[in-house]
Amino acid sequence: MNQILLITIAGEDQAGVTAGLSALLTGYSVNILDIGQAVIHATLSLGLLVELPEECAVEEVKGAVRNFALRRDLRVVTSEVSGQSYGQWVEAQGQARYIITLLSRKITSDQLARVTRVISQHQLNIDGINRLSGRIPLGKLPALSKACLEFSARGTLRDSAAFRRDLLEVAGSMEMDLAFQQDSMYRRNRRLVVFDMDSTLIEAEVIDELARLAGVGEQVSAITESAMRGEIDFSESFRTRVALLEGLEESALESVAGRLKITEGAEHLISTLRTLGYRTAILSGGFTYFARYLQARLGIDHIFANELDISDGRVTGKISGTIVDGARKAELLRQLADEQGIDLQQVIAVGDGANDLPMLSIAGLGIAFRAKPLVQQSAEQSISTLGLDAILYLLGLSDRYQRSANDAGGTP
To answer: From the candidates 166, 177, 198, 389, which is the catalytic residue?
Structure first.
């Protein structure tokens, strides 16, 4: 029976370690069963699980590997693995795999301890931990810093709702977000991203800004907040708010558009998605005037919003056409997916209000962004700590990958 040997090497990173070790093992006709390598702060960690021919002397191989490591001032551990143990490892590859993504301004040991404890309590094994964000300097954090760890875990998850609830509880008690996804074929095969506009792509509710100029700011803001919390019907509240804008001069729209603040990370997110071949859309309960403004500024492919009726240079207080409410957003999402010939699992939907929940619930990846409590609790994923470009981490795209994609002008 062939023999199995686990080789682990660690020490200062240097050129040619993997090449030299694999060349050495070639002399013993070794098969590589598994391999993993990582470098953290110029320190190498290399592991190989190898199969030796039956006639091969295990102690001779161990000695050769030790001498190889000694010449390079590396530490080495070799251990024999039984056929039974290897068989159990092979059988485990059929278990479900999950991705847990930790998003924060910085990563603390307490955050790491709390997250890994939850993973362990639900009897999942961590196969790998990767840092997707760039390196953070010592001292004071840079403005809008980003930190992200991605955990790859496997096992039988008996209660996914309880697991998600425990993760959210931990995230809520600390300054971080936690996303939980099954590691399926769709995760890296999304093709369409649809966004709400107000308080998602921009840091404002446009109708509230217009209302202030019309002198009805407090009335409209109160109705807006109630609608976003899901306390009143969106379409009904929208008609009521628009009616209060009657008589507002058309020039006010241009004034508001000129001072809109784009949400943190939106420009980077959309430019990266565009570079990687994604299609993007705005599905908004706001107004087409501002959706067109954002389309031109950010390079959005499709826009759907409400047409504010204007006559003789003034707002009439009415809407032309069908109101884009929650049901309409979901309908438009399905329509866009059908037109592009993609599955709903390949769609990402992002929003903050109760009227976004229908589209968040049918998209393959629904993300509540800096959302109201009702939406956070109902959506599959939630991001509150970082900017919109944190969505790229949920797709498994590291900062380095994002830079190379944008520098190359296409998929690296």
So the answer is: 198
